[in-house]
Amino acid sequence: MDIQRILEETFVARAEHHETVDSTNNLLRRYAEENGDIRLPLLIVADRQTAGRGRGGKRWWSGGGGLTFSLLLPADLFPHAHVQPPLAGLASAVAVAETVAPLLPDQKNVTVHWPNDVYAAGRKISGILVEVLADRRHIIGIGLNANNSTADAPAEISQRVATLRDLAGRTFDANDILIEVLRRLERQLRTMAASPQKVARAADRLCGQTGGELSLKLGTQTIAGRCLGIADDGGLKLQTPQGPQTFHSGTLH
Ligand code: BTN
């Protein structure tokens, strides 16, 4: 990766490129715990993760050519962290969707899926893992299937994931993509700090679940309903048998 270019062209103050790490989120967490006074935003990009993590304890597949990186961000970028759920994941998903759409033959196929995934052609192309530290600094980890191919993905997920390379039939400059995501992410995070509902509305416009039947697992309960989009506070709106309701946590099935 071209670290110099990333530092010159984005809001990142410090950046590291590693060949292999367990997880870029884990490494940043260790840095953050060791050093409360680190220069931020700090970016870690890795070619390979041996224990890439997804939400809910899932693993993240990326294969060779996938773009995997995490940012440690200062607490003051998140003055509305009390908004439930934090909108940082949706802001990141919007930034990734905006980056990916112009690269693909059919832009309309790029959508945001609540709480913070990006889909292309109906399959997951990017996953985001946001972790909030005790001092409110945030770690945003992004996995974007870029120059990898689903032909190399484990059988159990190969039908559900998409990559830029497979969809566009060519490879991309990883630096260009990363820089574009970082620039768009900065814009979304600054918008979110000033006006959280603007980011929620951008996510709502891109939401690919609206109108579909969803099933949300919330503790021991499962709530089924038609998706009404994303609410102004970042919650998921469902038309349930009891009427419209907004949910701020849970796992979709
Ligand atoms: C999900 O789909 O549930 C979220 C996946 C997040 C994957 C990224 S890859 C970079 C960063 N490091 C990790 O261990 N996870 C995130």
Textual characterization of the structure:
This protein is of the alpha+beta class and 253 residues long. It is built from 7 helices and 12 strands. The protein has helices at 3-9, 24-34, 88-100, 155-158, 164-168, 174-194, 196-206; strands at 14-21, 42-49, 67-73, 110-113, 117-120, 123-132, 138-144, 213-218, 221-230, 236-240, 243-247, 251-252. The strands form 2 sheets. The protein has a 7-stranded mixed β-sheet, with helices on both faces. Strand 5 (117-120) and strand 6 form a beta hairpin. The longest helix is centred in the last third of the chain and has 21 residues, at 174-194. The protein is globular, with a radius of gyration of 17 Å. Bound molecules: biotin (BTN). Residues 23-25, 49, 52-55, 58, 60, 68-70, 117, 127-129, 141-143 line the site of biotin (BTN).
